[in-house]
Amino acid sequence: MAKEIAKEVPAVQPIELDCADEGLALEMARWLTHLRAERRLSPKTLEAYARDLRQCLTFLCQHWGRKVTLKGFAALEATDVRAFMAMRRADDIAGRSLMRALAGLRSFGRYLEREGKGRVGALSAIRAPKVAKSLPKPIQMDAAKRLADADERAGEERDPWILARDAAVMALLYGSGLRISEALGLKRRDVPKPGEGDVLIVTGKGNKTRMVPVLQNVLALISDYVAMCPHSLPPAGPIFVGARGGPLSPRIIQLTMERLRGALGLPDSATPHALRHSFATHLLSRGGDLRAIQELLGHASLSTTQIYTGIDSERLLEVYKSAHPRG
Question: Which residues belong to the active site?
Answer without folding.
Answer: 179, 205, 273, 276, 299, 308
